[in-house]
């Protein structure tokens, strides 16, 4: 039975800042920009939060379904490290504002940047089991950034937004190779979000954990799937992208360990099999658990998919848990994803000056803090919205009323 991704979309806000602008504004060493391999990063506005990001990513996916298709969404899973409550899930708000059926299971999962892949695999297993023929599942990875100058070189690499993944038995975007996966997990504290106002990170520990998990995940994958050759089995690769330069290092490590290729061949292989997946992440930043699906979007939109192709995907989440899995894409995948116009969305974000960016941070850093009563006005940011190219209605957070978050739609159609 086929199962996999029927539709895929990402929402990365309406604003961005060039990485060079951020480096210069913070007085960071611009010689280190080459290591990041990034050009821009998405920046949330004070009326954007995990709910608005999730809904704005998923609405175009849901709106393309007819009434019968929407009614077959039986499972909604949000993955986030930007939770709003210790009990109530982000998914409950998302379920309401997407108008999904009341018969839908609604849950939230958490494991840093890995959680969405765990949710996708749960959804694929549910669909492939056949216990509810024709069922669909909607997985939405959604996060906000809580970084400022304390983040040092992590600040220019941290993005914000959401990826919406519709799973079904009609996998028009990616047919998952059922049973072909490898996992590796253990306890470590390489990064965390202990309060709703800031992140902590041990960059070196995280780097080594990412690479260690990648090797072990692929080794576990090889143990499950016969005749796997890292250099030839996968036509393309899409990986969790904390920053694009990290993926280049990860590819180099696997080529050295599992293919034994010399540096020149490794560079050519990176350009051919990996670089298409980095076009979008390099202008967004780390999308947390949506990162690997942003990379998949980038790959499908930029690789020459004239025939069928197998993609190897790697998902890593601090703490840590990880997975290497695979699936098939083709020309139809590109045609299907083109309907979402991801490239146009990213190109349409307004560009912030460093002064505008710095002025947004105090409100952004309080985005997840619970307040009994709060009003967020969109009016002060209408100038930024006017500079963006927006062609879809947007959900915005208008504040809280007795701790209950309130939202409204801005019309752009």
UniProtKB/TrEMBL annotation:
Family, as annotated: Belongs to the thiolase-like superfamily. HMG-CoA synthase family.
Coiled-coil ranges (or none): none
Name of the protein described by the UniProt record: Hydroxymethylglutaryl-CoA synthase family protein
Signal peptide: none
Domain Hydroxymethylglutaryl-coenzyme A synthase N-terminal: 70-169
Hydroxymethylglutaryl-coenzyme A synthase C-terminal domain location: 267-361
Keywords, ordered alphabetically: Transferase
InterPro entries given in the database record: HMG_CoA_synt_C_dom (IPR013746), HMG_CoA_synth_N (IPR013528), Thiolase-like (IPR016039)
CDD domains given in the database record: init_cond_enzymes (cd00827)
Gene3D superfamilies: 3.40.47.10
Keyword Transferase: yes
Pfam families: HMG_CoA_synt_C, HMG_CoA_synt_N
Highest taxon of the lineage: Bacteria
